[in-house]
Amino acid sequence: MLADLDFKAQFIVARKIERVFRNTFNTKETAFYDHLISVLFQNPLHRHAENHIYFAKRGSKTRQEPLQLAIQQGIRRFEEKWSKKVESKIQIQAQTPSGEPCLSVIDYMNWAVHRAFTRGEMRYYNVVSDKVSLLVDLYDTGNYPKNWYHKKNPFDINKTTPL
Protein backbone atom coordinates (compact mmCIF):
# COMPACT_ATOMS: atom_id res chain seq x y z
CA MET A 1 0.00 0.00 0.00
CA LEU A 2 1.18 3.52 -0.83
CA ALA A 3 0.83 4.72 2.75
CA ASP A 4 3.40 2.10 3.83
CA LEU A 5 6.13 3.33 1.48
CA ASP A 6 8.96 5.49 2.82
CA PHE A 7 8.87 8.77 0.87
CA LYS A 8 7.99 12.45 1.13
CA ALA A 9 6.50 14.69 -1.53
CA GLN A 10 6.28 18.45 -2.03
CA PHE A 11 3.74 20.27 -4.18
CA ILE A 12 3.36 23.69 -5.71
CA VAL A 13 -0.26 24.33 -6.69
CA ALA A 14 -1.12 27.36 -8.79
CA ARG A 15 -4.55 28.57 -9.68
CA LYS A 16 -4.82 29.67 -13.28
CA ILE A 17 -5.75 33.26 -12.66
CA GLU A 18 -6.42 34.60 -16.14
CA ARG A 19 -4.77 37.99 -15.54
CA VAL A 20 -1.59 36.36 -14.20
CA PHE A 21 -1.60 33.67 -16.88
CA ARG A 22 -1.99 36.27 -19.62
CA ASN A 23 0.33 39.01 -18.30
CA THR A 24 3.09 36.93 -16.71
CA PHE A 25 3.15 33.86 -18.93
CA ASN A 26 1.71 35.23 -22.20
CA THR A 27 -0.89 32.43 -22.07
CA LYS A 28 1.85 29.84 -22.64
CA GLU A 29 1.22 26.58 -20.78
CA THR A 30 4.88 25.61 -20.91
CA ALA A 31 6.02 28.93 -19.39
CA PHE A 32 3.48 28.50 -16.59
CA TYR A 33 4.57 24.90 -15.96
CA ASP A 34 8.27 25.79 -16.06
CA HIS A 35 7.68 28.54 -13.49
CA LEU A 36 6.04 26.03 -11.16
CA ILE A 37 9.00 23.68 -11.62
CA SER A 38 11.45 26.46 -10.72
CA VAL A 39 9.47 27.27 -7.56
CA LEU A 40 9.18 23.57 -6.62
CA PHE A 41 12.93 23.02 -6.82
CA GLN A 42 14.05 26.41 -5.49
CA ASN A 43 14.59 25.36 -1.88
CA PRO A 44 15.27 21.62 -1.51
CA LEU A 45 18.20 20.90 -3.83
CA HIS A 46 20.95 22.32 -1.61
CA ARG A 47 20.17 19.74 1.09
CA HIS A 48 21.79 16.80 -0.69
CA ALA A 49 25.12 16.28 -2.43
CA GLU A 50 23.40 14.48 -5.30
CA ASN A 51 19.86 14.83 -6.64
CA HIS A 52 18.16 12.62 -9.23
CA ILE A 53 15.07 14.21 -10.74
CA TYR A 54 12.74 12.18 -12.94
CA PHE A 55 9.99 13.74 -15.04
CA ALA A 56 7.34 11.80 -16.87
CA LYS A 57 7.72 11.98 -20.63
CA ARG A 58 4.92 14.09 -22.05
CA GLY A 59 4.08 13.73 -25.70
CA SER A 60 6.66 13.03 -28.35
CA LYS A 61 8.97 16.00 -27.94
CA THR A 62 11.53 16.25 -25.20
CA ARG A 63 11.15 18.83 -22.47
CA GLN A 64 14.37 17.98 -20.68
CA GLU A 65 16.27 21.16 -21.61
CA PRO A 66 13.47 23.59 -20.59
CA LEU A 67 13.01 21.65 -17.34
CA GLN A 68 16.74 21.87 -16.64
CA LEU A 69 16.59 25.63 -17.25
CA ALA A 70 13.59 25.96 -14.90
CA ILE A 71 15.43 24.06 -12.16
CA GLN A 72 18.52 26.21 -12.70
CA GLN A 73 16.36 29.33 -12.37
CA GLY A 74 15.04 28.04 -9.04
CA ILE A 75 18.60 27.40 -7.88
CA ARG A 76 19.66 30.94 -8.87
CA ARG A 77 16.76 32.40 -6.87
CA PHE A 78 17.79 30.34 -3.85
CA GLU A 79 21.42 31.44 -4.18
CA GLU A 80 20.45 35.11 -4.51
CA LYS A 81 18.01 34.98 -1.60
CA TRP A 82 20.29 33.15 0.84
CA SER A 83 23.76 34.13 -0.51
CA LYS A 84 24.61 30.44 -0.51
CA LYS A 85 26.01 28.49 -3.44
CA VAL A 86 24.18 25.29 -4.36
CA GLU A 87 26.90 22.78 -5.13
CA SER A 88 24.70 19.71 -5.46
CA LYS A 89 25.10 17.44 -8.44
CA ILE A 90 21.76 17.35 -10.27
CA GLN A 91 20.78 14.71 -12.78
CA ILE A 92 17.50 15.16 -14.69
CA GLN A 93 15.91 12.41 -16.74
CA ALA A 94 12.66 12.02 -18.64
CA GLN A 95 11.14 8.60 -18.05
CA THR A 96 8.00 6.56 -18.53
CA PRO A 97 6.23 5.24 -15.43
CA SER A 98 7.29 1.72 -16.46
CA GLY A 99 10.92 2.91 -16.60
CA GLU A 100 10.71 4.62 -13.20
CA PRO A 101 8.01 3.22 -10.86
CA CYS A 102 8.32 6.21 -8.51
CA LEU A 103 6.51 8.24 -11.18
CA SER A 104 3.39 6.15 -10.55
CA VAL A 105 3.59 7.05 -6.87
CA ILE A 106 3.82 10.78 -7.56
CA ASP A 107 1.06 10.49 -10.19
CA TYR A 108 -1.27 9.21 -7.48
CA MET A 109 -0.15 11.96 -5.12
CA ASN A 110 -0.79 14.60 -7.80
CA TRP A 111 -4.19 13.09 -8.49
CA ALA A 112 -5.11 13.17 -4.78
CA VAL A 113 -4.12 16.85 -4.52
CA HIS A 114 -5.99 17.61 -7.76
CA ARG A 115 -9.16 15.94 -6.42
CA ALA A 116 -8.97 18.04 -3.27
CA PHE A 117 -8.72 21.28 -5.25
CA THR A 118 -11.12 20.52 -8.09
CA ARG A 119 -13.78 18.48 -6.31
CA GLY A 120 -13.24 19.30 -2.65
CA GLU A 121 -12.61 15.60 -1.93
CA MET A 122 -10.08 15.14 0.84
CA ARG A 123 -10.48 11.36 1.28
CA TYR A 124 -7.76 10.41 -1.24
CA TYR A 125 -5.39 13.07 0.04
CA ASN A 126 -6.00 12.05 3.65
CA VAL A 127 -4.78 8.51 2.93
CA VAL A 128 -1.33 9.88 2.02
CA SER A 129 -1.27 13.22 3.86
CA ASP A 130 1.60 12.14 6.11
CA LYS A 131 3.75 11.78 2.96
CA VAL A 132 3.32 15.46 2.08
CA SER A 133 6.06 17.54 3.66
CA LEU A 134 5.01 20.76 1.89
CA LEU A 135 2.09 21.94 -0.22
CA VAL A 136 2.09 25.56 -1.37
CA ASP A 137 -1.06 27.09 -2.84
CA LEU A 138 1.03 29.67 -4.68
CA TYR A 139 -1.63 32.16 -5.76
CA ASP A 140 -3.90 31.92 -2.71
CA THR A 141 -2.55 35.27 -1.59
CA GLY A 142 -5.62 35.93 0.56
CA ASN A 143 -4.35 33.29 2.98
CA TYR A 144 -0.65 34.21 2.87
CA PRO A 145 1.43 33.00 4.75
CA LYS A 146 -1.01 30.26 5.70
CA ASN A 147 -1.10 29.09 2.08
CA TRP A 148 2.09 27.13 2.87
CA TYR A 149 0.88 23.80 4.26
CA HIS A 150 3.18 21.55 6.29
CA LYS A 151 3.24 19.54 9.51
CA LYS A 152 2.39 22.53 11.70
CA ASN A 153 -0.23 23.84 9.26
CA PRO A 154 -1.79 20.73 7.69
CA PHE A 155 -3.53 21.10 4.35
CA ASP A 156 -7.30 21.01 4.23
CA ILE A 157 -9.19 22.28 1.19
CA ASN A 158 -11.56 24.13 3.53
CA LYS A 159 -8.67 26.40 4.59
CA THR A 160 -8.12 27.66 1.04
CA THR A 161 -9.77 30.56 -0.71
CA PRO A 162 -12.40 29.02 -3.02
CA LEU A 163 -11.38 28.74 -6.67
Task: Outline the structure in words.
The structure is a single chain. The radius of gyration is 16 Å and the shape is globular. It has five helices and five strands, in the order E-H-H-E-H-E-H-H-E-E. The mean pLDDT is 91. It has one domain. The strands form two sheets. A three-stranded mixed sheet has the order 1-4-5. With 163 residues, it is an alpha/beta fold.
What is the structure about, briefly put?
With 163 residues, this protein is of the alpha/beta class. It is built from 5 helices and 5 strands.
- State which percent range the strand residues make up: 15-25%
CA-to-CA gap between the ends?
A: 32 Å
- Alpha-beta content class: alpha/beta
Please count the beta strands (DSSP E, at least 2 residues each): 5
Order of helix and strand elements from N to C terminus: EHHEHEHHEE
Order of strands across the main sheet? 1-4-5
Explain the layout of strands and helices:
Elements: E1 9-13, H1 18-25, H2 29-40, E2 50-56, H3 64-82, E3 89-95, H4 102-119, H5 123-128, E4 132-137, E5 148-149
Parallel strand pairs: 1-4, 2-3
Antiparallel strand pairs: 4-5
